[in-house]
């Protein structure tokens, strides 16, 4: 029984935290991958290319050789643990992947240079001291956190794009459930309405035309950044916060301008024609359900302190957004979601060119867009 098999048996017999299982699993998977690589190399090189730098378990064929089978079985078990620990069972069935750390490594690896096998260290990025990696002979290498290695590195990692997509779906469901009014209250409110509001003939929006970041808060081993937006404002018909979560899958690297043309704000959802946009970078180990609860609680608690909201109108929105940012506790995360920047008070029917966020990390163009209803 090798170390990895013994570890899996021990994990099944001994109650440990999901975080401990995950941290041990990724390190041992990287070490086991170094042993199984000669049996997996052909499949991985057939899957990883200039268009796709990663391979999930479903990308690889069933392996007949024992070392490869052992690795893939262990990775499958770790994948299930990863999903369960995040509460994402209803949103995805595959999170773990094998990823080439940087596109610059592809040519050397495809030409035959032997890779290293690594994993993200535990804890917050600010506390990392080095990146631990294994070679095919079992030797340990300690790599710089920020300087990209010249040698190819295959990383056992979470598919951050898939995790963010699933996590935002969970957060939207949680926010919807938390904000849903009791049925009786809805019936009473609607019964007092003299007539139902007319269905709008057009949709008034603001689009993000382009955006650029100075710093994406990502070490090389973490791959592409996974940025998302929290749009915050006040509901048009109730004194409650409106929170929208926007995935930004194109925003991969810092110091590159991305022509997004993405709708960020649907103005029918926001009072006073004003909203704020918080940019966050997703990292490993976010508790998405708790994050949704924290965001909503911070906004709701702040609004409850304002007795006459119409007196201050949209001026309270930046204060509410600052309350959200201030109440994102570090202990929600093992590897914190990084605050990237915030755009305060984006106004309806207003165009912004080379508009800097409050943290001077993001620069963006915003423009109004009216979408006509079609039959």
From TrEMBL:
Q: Name one Pfam family in it.
A: DUF3103
Q: Where is the signal peptide?
A: 1-20
Alphabetically sorted, this entry's keywords are: Signal
Cite the InterPro entries for this sequence: DUF3103 (IPR021452)
* Signal among keywords: yes
Record carries keyword Signal:
yes
Q: What is this protein called?
A: DUF3103 domain-containing protein
What species is this protein from?
Aliivibrio sifiae
